[in-house]
Structures are given as C-alpha cells and as structure tokens.
Write a sequence for this structure.
C-alpha cells in the first residue's frame, strides 16, 4: 500500500513538472493577446478601431472574444510603429484657417510650443488653398459669400468647428454634404475639444492648500434671459441663501484681472449653463475648479459631468429636491470645514485647466488629418447637431 501511494505521488510530481515546462515554453514562444480597448488606454492612441480594423487585414493576428476585437500584441506594436514612421517622414501638414475663430488671431506657430504637436503648419493665407491638407471653418463666422470658390482638392479635409450649444447657434441650410470632419465640445465629434479638462499632476506635493474664502455663494452673469432655466433657479435659490452677484446683468462688471481673485474668494460658485445639452459643460465649471472653488452646476445630468470630472468635485442641483434643500446643504458645508474639504480631495492628484479656443482646435485638427487619412463626409450636419 505504501509503495502504491509513493508511486501516485511520483506520478503527480511528474505531471506538475511537465505542466510547468509546458507553460514556460508556451509563454516563451506564444505572444499573448490584449484587448484593443485596453491597449487604447495604455498607448494613448486616438483610434483603437483603426488598429483593430487594420489588424483584421493581417492573417492569424486577431480573434473575436465576446464581440470584442482582440489583437495580437505584436501586430499592434507593428501598426503603431508604422503610423509613427509615417508621421515622422511625411512633409508638414498644412491647415488653412479660413476665418479666425471668434475673430481672435493667435500665434500660428503655437502647435509645437504649446501642445507639443510636430509636423503641422498653420496658415491664414488663402492663396495656399490648393496645397492645404485641411481648411478650418468656425461656424460663427461662416457666410455664404465668404466660402472658397475654387474646386476643393480631393485630398483636402474641411473641418467644421463650433463651441456654441445648439440653442446658441443657428443652423445654415447649406452645411450638409460640405464638411469632412467636426471639431466641437461633443464627445461624438471627430475632434473633441472640451471647454476644459482634469489632468493628473506631473509631480510635486499631493497636498492642496485652499484659497482664503470671505464669500459664501457667488455668481457672475452677463447674458440675462428670463426664459433660461438658470434664471428661474436663481430666483428661487436666493430666497433661501445669500448670493453675491456680479457681471453686466447686475451692473457689477468683473475685469479679467480681477476674475480669478473674485472666484477663488467664494466657497461656492453657481456654474449654471445658459442652455442644457449633452456634453455642453463650459468654462463656468472649469474656472471655479481651477481657482479652488466648489462649483454648483446646472446643466446636463450628473452622469454626463462625471464623464469629465470626479463626482466629488462638484455639487449638482439635481441632487436636491428643491432650491431650498440645496441652500440648506450649502449652509451645512459652510459650518463644517471637514465636510467642505472633501470636495477638494481630487486636488491631491489632479489639476484643472481651461481650453484656449481657436489654437487648440486648429492644432488638434491639423494633427488629426496628419494621422488619419480616411475618406469621410459629414452628410447631414444639421440633423446631427441640431436635431
């Protein structure tokens, strides 16, 4: 009996040893696969789908798992190296700014210095139309009598830029079948440029010292429209809590020089959007975050905000059954410093910034058309944006 047990143990040891050897050989000579979505996060690639689609053309390099494209890691590395090689050897990509966004000129060499984007050349010289790889049109300045009259080269991309919400910009009947790419604040744009962003700290201390506060709730507004939901909410809220108001609507204009000091001196700032649309989250949110103030937001649902910023960085009016309940919560936070400080824990690891309109759109648009050569037409722009 003891001999039989000993033989069993010996057989088990042999099996285990063989499994170990097989595993070593398997992982040495077989390249594991990775989910395309996971590689997108690691590599920072702008288009995971491009890599998946291109890899599908290569034999024995892909498989489908739970309807997800899974690509051999070697294929992805090779494809990324090919894209980088093309980027380095191609001549400069030329982007023609047909009309200056918001009629504000900026340094045409800003892509390299501000965004570390290389191989892009911006110009406003319309005589370069035929050689430009892309042309940027800002919706607010589009006029039918000020559009290109020359035939568009087949390789040329026309980029439609708009940062106003559908409620604040009127559609043009001639926009359909005209553009190749869209550059807006919306996540479903080809070139998505938000009004601001939260990004990781690149070093230094994780501690955050909040600015001194001598005001409870503040609001700066210059666009007064009694039909706006924000005006109606404000009228109710002010019945229950004191609000310091500024801007042309209150005959208390705030200069650019004084703006940051004013906002940072408030415990809470009413980040109320003038219209409510998905992804329409403007500098009204990002400026208070940047200057150390808790934004109280009125706009799209909380879920949409949390796609851009941490959920504990702001207060949403929808979290409360009434303006009175919101006011009571703000008063509670005013009296309890430890509760108030919880709205700044995200500052230990992140910083907030706002977008420099015009330059950022132009640079990212130029970089996009440099990297992605796919043919595309935006057939029904009016329906997509204003429906």
């Amino acid at each position: 009996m003891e001999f039989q047990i000993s033989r069993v143990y010996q057989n088990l040891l042999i099996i285990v040893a063989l499994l170990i050897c097989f595993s070593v050989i398997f992982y040495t000579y077989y390249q594991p696969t990775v989910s395309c979505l996971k590689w997108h996060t690691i590599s920072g690639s702008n288009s995971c789908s491009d890599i998946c689609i291109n890899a599908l053309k290569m034999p024995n390099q892909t498989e489908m798992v739970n309807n997800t494209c899974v690509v051999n890691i070697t294929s992805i590395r090779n494809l990324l190296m090919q894209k980088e090689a093309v980027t380095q050897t191609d001549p400069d990509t030329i982007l023609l700014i047909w009309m200056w966004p918001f009629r504000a000129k900026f340094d045409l060499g800003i892509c390299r210095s501000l965004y570390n984007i290389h191989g892009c050349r911006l110009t406003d010289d319309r005589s370069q139309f035929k050689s430009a790889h892309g042309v940027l049109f800002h919706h607010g300045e589009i006029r039918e009598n000020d559009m290109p009259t020359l035939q568009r080269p087949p390789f040329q991309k026309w980029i439609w830029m708009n940062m106003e919400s559908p409620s604040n910009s009127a559609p043009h009947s001639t926009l359909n079948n005209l553009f190749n790419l869209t550059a807006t604040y919306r996540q479903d744009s080809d070139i998505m440029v938000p009004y601001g962003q939260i990004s990781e700290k690149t070093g230094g201390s994780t501690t955050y010292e909040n600015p001194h506060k001598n005001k409870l709730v503040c609001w700066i507004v210059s666009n007064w429209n009694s039909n706006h939901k924000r005006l109606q909410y404000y009228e109710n809220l002010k019945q229950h809590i004191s609000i310091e108001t500024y801007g042309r609507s209150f005959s208390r204009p705030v200069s650019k020089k004084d703006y940051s000091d004013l906002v940072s001196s408030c415990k809470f700032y009413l980040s109320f959007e003038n219209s409510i649309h998905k992804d329409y989250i403007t500098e009204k949110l990002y400026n208070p975050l940047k200057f150390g103030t808790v934004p109280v937001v009125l706009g799209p649902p909380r879920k949409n905000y949390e796609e851009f910023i941490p959920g504990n960085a702001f207060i949403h009016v929808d979290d409360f059954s009434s303006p009175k309940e919101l006011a009571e919560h703000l008063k509670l936070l005013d009296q309890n410093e430890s509760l108030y400080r919880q709205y700044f824990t995200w500052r230990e690891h992140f910083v907030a910034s706002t977008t420099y309109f015009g330059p950022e759109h132009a640079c990212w648009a130029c970089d996009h058309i440099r990297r992605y050569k796919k043919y595309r037409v935006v057939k029904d722009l009016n329906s997509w944006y204003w429906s």
